[in-house]
Amino acid sequence: MEDIERYKDEFEYFDESLGDNGLTVLSVHLEACFLFWDGHTKEIRQHLKACMDHYMALFGDNIEWGFDPKGWTQKPIDKLPTFEQTLENNAHVDDCIEWFVASGNYKELNASFDYKLSCLTARGWEVQEPSRLLFRIHRQKFYDSETHQAIIELFNDCISRLNPYHATMGWSPAYGYDNDRVGIDILDQAHCFFGLNIYDLGDIMTLSHGIKSVDWWTYISHELAERVGGIDIFKAQIKKQKITYKDYSDGLLLIAADTPQLLPADDKIPESYLKINAITRPMRNGNYDSLGNGYDEGIGYQSFNTYFTDLWMRRFDNPRLWRRLPQPVDNRTLSQPSIEPITLMSAQVCEIDGRYRYEEEYDHIRDHPVYFAEPYERAEDLRQYVVLLKGDIAPYFIKMNQHGHTEERVSITWTLFEKF
After folding, report:
1. Do 153 and 241 reside in the same domain of the chain?
2. Contact 83, 63 (CB under 8 A)
């Protein structure tokens, strides 16, 4: 705990203009995120309820308020309908279950919350839309011996009940309800500490294109492992790299260290994080969009935009690049019609560092080619991209059904879009 707290002045942000005596608007706490399919079904929603009940049994004494799902207004926790009532009121397969409760004062939404529990489920008609459960726990609780084990059991319970496609746990930026006010600070915080994982609703919208980042704990389902040829091939790669892992019935957990790491930018990054990043790189989304609103008033006064988000996602690929945090430039080193395209088949070894695209991607659910606006730009391009470095194995394309489950693993041609 002392190792974490000595960096408190660097990762905790205070705003004197808020409240009567100022407020802490950004800190660091433990967060876990579970992205799972079938959130529209009654069975999974009951499992979700059990997970939320488990969290509340452990940390509910810290939860003081939440949003009333009807009208989305803040209310003290004793004035809210129960989560069970919310399930009953939204029982139809096409209803969405949205829930948010937290510690702190509901009149001070800009203050950093030490505890938070939220979920958002898919509707039955949505195509390949996952659901999400996210919880936050005060960092000090992780170092209490009794609570530490309870947190691990909570994580395992959520894995068992929700059967997530992907899940992570570790240190994260801890802000209030809306991160717009602290967008500049979050970018600064992430620049100082490689070990922070940032969550966003974009994780839900783009999960079918791959994961965003690794963490202290990184859970990979059997279905997600199909991107690299299946769980057996993936496990063989893990063992070859001597990465610590834990088996689950429908996936496995990659473990980067005994405890979550902040990873200060000036320190050497542990090999375990670099190895886990490298082995999961073919599973990663190569065109995520943005973690922030792109606020920009010059160097040092910027929030996450598409460019910085991409650099952050590749921070373990090229740590020196993220430490330098270069400014955006109009660098159109993209494929052009006059250049012979460089292609790579699934399962082939990459020879050229760069960003690759699935040019011919077809939406078999909606029965039309996947939309893109301009052939030589990533903006508004909904086709799949992947970042690969020399020696990486090109991934397969996962053909999913409407609700995200794997129908088959397909060998495709990836085309080099941008050289690094």
Report:
1. yes
2. no
